[in-house]
Design goal:
7-stranded mixed beta sheet; alpha/beta; 37% helix; 21% strand
Amino acid sequence: MRSYIVFLLLFSIKVAAKALCRVRLEWLREDDDPWADLRVLALLNHTSLFEPVFLAAVPSRVLWQLATHGVVPLADKTAARPILGRLFLLLAKHVVPVTREKDDTWEEVLRQVRDPEAVLIILPEGRMMRRTGLDLQGNPMTIRGGIADILNAMPGGRLFIAYSGGLHHIQAPGERFPRPFRSAWLGAEVVDIPTYRDRLARGRDPDAFKAAVIEDLTRRRDAYCYRER
């Protein structure tokens, strides 16, 4: 029953987002079927809690995957919000509230993604960019190492890397109401997880592999999220 409820919610968000926001999806690499065999969907440049508007560009078959096998690690602070928290807890089959520590909550995420049909959504930066270009504590936005843990846990499939052009013009952190009927840009590409993992892990220990993943995704984010369009 939960899968049907989640799918209806995701599909409703998709329809509403199409009506209220003009999402332009740009593929950065050619692919015959970029939505096939996805195991990880990573969104870079996390700027707003209204990023579900990007569901406007996601096919319904992927929404069904999320409803039946989706895994979403959700910050416990966000999960505790009285309204948005309840909404975010219904964005996938398994939504796991996590702390900022590498504890039992993160181990539960890794356990879920070992399901051969699991599809995980992750925001690799782990917190939102404020209008200052920094996070809530005034620190630069960096990629966290959790994405490397996820890639190590995945036996195969493909990584969907989404590059957000930013949503502060629609709703910035701390603002109560969004501004509808605005445009939003999303760049995207897919990479094979085993190939990507093997290339970055070659000759490296686990800590060096994690650093290599962080460096690579940071380079991609800075090259694509902020380019002129």
